[in-house]
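User: Predict the structure for this protein chain, please.
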Amino acid sequence: MLVLFDQSTPAPLRLHLNAHAVTEARERGWDRLTNGDLLNVAEAAGFEVFVTADKNLRYQQNLASRKIAIVVLGNAQWRVLKNHADRVVSAVDSATPGSYAEVMIPRG
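Assistant: Here is the predicted structure, written as structure tokens:
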């Protein structure tokens, strides 16, 4: 799957998603886009999964008509997240068009 990391997503996580093609928003010059615009350009570019730590995304955006799946990290601190990367991998692996999943990560 084509996976897009928001600027809030720790870059080392991509090493755990080696079965997928991962791109960071900043690599495309999209790191300054607001979430609505970012989701629009990501969908237009064919991305299938958007990984972010923005827990407010579902309240700020109308996600009902989205084709892109959204995976929200419960904790984006890499020192904590790296011990639970398998949870994120599982969420990305099971993502379907338009799905929304929050990955619970214990506080570090």
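The first strand starts at residue 2 and ends at 5.
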